[in-house]
Design goal:
With 105 residues, the protein is mostly helical. It has two helices and no strands. It has helices at residues 10-35, 44-90. α1 (10-35) runs antiparallel to α2. It is elongated. The model has no long low-confidence stretch (mean pLDDT 78).
Length: 105
């Protein structure tokens, strides 16, 4: 499998990821108030719907906040990777190493 890296484009990808993270955070924050269910009426359907939306919002926001963190962290490392790759390439060859030890599971 071939891996083509164009280091000149990594800062642009980083800026795009930063914009995506900001947009996702903005949308998530603005829909937070709308996702809170209205108080249920006395009927069983309203009470069940209110409870279902309440339970759904917890995993939704937990997953979304993790996604925002991943986008932000990814954007922060792309510019240093680009600089390191270009420097190594000018010195005779680039090497790609694993960062698995620093990745949080």
């Amino acid at each position: 499998m071939a891996l083509d890296i164009i280091p000149d484009q990594l800062p642009g990808v980083s800026a795009n990821q930063t914009a995506n993270a900001a947009s996702l955070a903005s949308v998530t924050g603005s829909c937070g108030a709308r996702s809170v269910p209205v108080p249920a009426a006395a009927d069983l359907v309203s009470a069940t719907a209110s409870m279902a939306f309440g339970f759904y919002s917890i995993p939704y926001y937990m997953s979304t906040s993790v996604g925002i963190d991943y986008l932000t962290e990814g954007a922060q490392v792309l510019c240093p990777i680009s600089a390191t790759y270009l420097t190594a390439d000018m010195l005779g060859g680039a090497e790609v190493g694993s960062r698995a030890a620093s990745v949080l599971a």
